[in-house]
Amino acid sequence: MGARVRSAVRAGLRGLWVAAAGLAGSITLFVLSVLSIAFILLGFGAVTTPWVLGLVRHWANWRRAVAGEWCGVGIPATYRPFPDDVRGGVVGQVARCRLMLGDPATWRDLRWLLVDMTAGFVTALLPAALVFYPIEGYVIAAGLWRVFTDGTHIGYWYGFVPIKGQGTALLAAALGTALAVTGVFLAPALLRVHFLLTRAVLLPPGGELEERVRVLTETRRDAVDTSAAELRRIERDLHDGAQARLVAMGMDLGTIEALVEKDPAKAKALLAQARQSSADALTELRDLVRGIHPPVLAERGLGDAVRALALRLPVATEVEVEPAVRTEAPVESAAYFAVSEALTNAVKHAGADRIWVDITHTDGHLRISVTDNGKGGAVITADGGLGGVERRLGTFDGVLAVSSPAGGPTMVTMEIPCVLS
Known about the structure:
Blueprint: H1 2-38, H2 45-71, H3 89-101, H4 104-116, H5 119-148, E1 156-158, E2 161-163, H6 166-202, H7 207-259, H8 264-292, H9 295-300, H10 302-311, E3 316-321, H11 329-348, E4 354-362, E5 365-372, H12 385-394, E6 399-403, E7 410-417
Parallel strand pairs: 3-4
Antiparallel strand pairs: 1-2, 4-5, 5-7, 6-7
């Protein structure tokens, strides 16, 4: 019951904050948007509108963020991306204005502002009212009723209870108790209703399907780009490494063939050099194969492959694996290279001296966490290593989360939907 009460109070406070901030913010942004769009006819609205609509998008994105964080309601953003050739300055602002007004998501945002300042305000205020309005009933019963009435006439109403004496004040306390009990059980659900209303307005018709198609399109493009980059890396490594050594070894063998009768000592030295070149080329080929798909991963599975990876690190690393974790080969490969990137970041950038890796499989998801005691500050960037990991996992509908406050510790968590094989 204590946890339920705390959850209700938290929902009430959050609802009160969303109601107050939402009413002020949505009214302000709606008025600014209407004025700015109207001023397009006067010319300068084309410059101000992208800025105002950008604020609207930030406002909507904040609501999306708290919806997911507070109530687990996912509201994906479906804005159309700007083309790469959109320039800056006034010309660029005019182009952005045209693109933003042509985006259906912009008009859904404006419609949501209207809903948020009306029905959204009410649905956000309900959990706060159920949680905090009973306090007034108790205060009235404690004697505040004397301020509002002389005991003969109705001087105040608490809900539907007319306050005119101690008896009706006690009825107010009883009504407050009923509201408080209702709030304890319904406040979190009512706050969720507010965010479900927000989701219904912000999502386009067939929004979930459209968002799913968009995500699949992006992950397919990322998978193709990743495969192309991997092929280029393999070609470069072969050209600059093993291939160059094999060419040199062939030239040495040709020289040995010419010197074997004229200068046996020189031919013997070149033969030793050719043998070393072949050994180096073989080592580079093995490293290349290991970078494509480590043999231990194919033979022993993800757990042993990560343990082997940890043994090669210069810092103490503990690996905990749920017994018998073995999934499809593509999932194992993606997870292995994701862990490898996380470990590399911990060693190179975090300054950690201890790392923990946990691999489990629960509820149809492969879950991996990599934790280090380094300095923290890790973030996901589009062109960084963690950004590449996120794109790789996205191919399998996986997700990546990073918790890395300044001063550490850093925890990188990965989840991939899969089944055990």
